[in-house]
Amino acid sequence: MWFLCVFFHRLLDYRRPEVESLAELFGAFEPMEDGSPVRPLSLEWNLPQNHHIDSPFHFVNLPSEDVARNIARRSMLVKGIYELWGEGITDDDLEKAIRGFSDERKLPYLKPESSFRITVDNFGKVTSFQEQNERIRGLSYIPFKGRVDLRNPDHKFWLMEIDDYGENNGLPPVVERRIFFGREVGAADRKLLPTYQLKSRKYIGPTAMDAEIAFLMANQGLARPGKLIYDPFVGTGSILVAAAHFGAMTMGADIDIRVVRDGRGPDCNVWSNFEQYGLPKPLSLMRSDNNLPPWRSGLKEVFDAIICDPPYGVRAGGRKSGGRKLLKGAVDPYTVPEEKRFNHIPSTAAYSLAECVNDLLELSARMLVMGGRLVFFFPVLREDVVTVAQFPEHPCFTLIASCEQILSLRYSRYLLTMVKTGHYTEEISELAGKKHLDFRENHLKWMEEGNLHSAVFSSSDAQNTKSSFDRDSKPKYRGKYV
């Protein structure tokens, strides 16, 4: 069934991948004999005529209204999904389309015993109350027989419009005026965002993940009851809070024992964030080093998803165990005296992003179940032309989504979603190590310790050199015109 999917006009790269992940979560694809889902490269999508890919209006093919309704209710970026009764450039075009829509589909929602409401929405433009009433009266040719109920109607209808007034609506000028009328199948429930906003959370840090992004990551990781989700850079637990909200079991780790054990006191720590929202607490929070994972040898395929935000070295530098002297071989490994174990803070050293991502892929290849997902952020410099070949890779994983979030003039990050499609073996591990060496050598040398920070924060005329990145060198709109 084709539906009209209307998105919120934000985080544009994230919109379709989120819907596709939720479609898999709610059973839009038939499972294989071994129980693993059949996931095509993407759902079938279409755009309204002459619309740009950034348009909030998209057509999507879904198997049923139940799937569409579930997607809309859980999505962070879907405003609503509708059964389209008609569309057109002018009101006459719209009337002709609605009259031609199947009576078999329309009449069940026009019965005398039912109630209804019509909402008028104009993208990028405020419509006065008087104009809304005039637009609704213009739909008198639709034979509504039920009563109007503005509070709790049985059926909700939407008259949506987008104008062609150039760049003021945040879209390319090629988007022409279009009018849509349809029945609401499912609508977003964004009430949880004010509930989980960081400013009202008990325990946050400088790198705490924004609530909306955390929920998007949990959706990409297919968080649901019965699934075990792990965050190896747990920090203040924002990502695990989002996963727990959707019913998943959670585990986390961090290299800083003061974060996972102490927080800012007994009533202000990671655990209190879960207590604040009445969520199940994590099964475990560990002091663990991503570079030296604590798992026993032979342990494999434990987690259903690994969702994390690795340290970039911008706001909080990555650290690994050992200390500079130990890693350079200047001192030998030491044993902490028994009387100092409780308060001892282990020595750490700088941990480059290239090494961190390689360790993350190795951990995920070993510890994720087949079909499990790895979801993590990967930073890039916007002056480079970013291609899929520049993202980290591993023989066990298939990249299914890369979503850009622009953070500044020079700096953005991609949310990468990978699915484990191959079993982990020692041979695979050796091959992955070779891929990592090639990746580090040939692609992103700025990922080494210190280079990313200087690239993001150095002034454009640093060292009397002019930056090669020009504000106007990037296209104003992403993607191609259609």
TrEMBL record:
EC identifiers of the protein: 2.1.1.214
Keywords tagged on the record: Cytoplasm, Methyltransferase, RNA-binding, S-adenosyl-L-methionine, Transferase, tRNA processing, tRNA-binding
InterPro entries xrefs: DNA_methylase_N6_adenine_CS, RlmKL-like_Mtase, SAM-dependent_MTases_sf, TRMT11, TRMT11_N
Keyword flag Transmembrane helix: no
Domain tRNA (guanine(10)-N(2))-methyltransferase TRMT11 N-terminal: 7-190
KW Mitochondrion (keyword) present: no
A GO term from the CC aspect: cytoplasm
Record-annotated Ribosomal RNA large subunit methyltransferase K/L-like methyltransferase domain positions: 200-322
Chain segments carrying region Disordered: 463-482
Protein name: tRNA (guanine(10)-N(2))-methyltransferase
Family per record: Belongs to the class I-like SAM-binding methyltransferase superfamily. TRM11 methyltransferase family.
Superkingdom as given in the UniProt entry: Eukaryota
Top-level taxonomy: Eukaryota, Viridiplantae, Streptophyta, Embryophyta, Tracheophyta
Species the sequence originates in: Dendrobium nobile
Location in the cell: Cytoplasm
GO molecular function: tRNA (guanine(10)-N2)-methyltransferase activity; tRNA binding
GO terms, biological process: methylation; tRNA processing
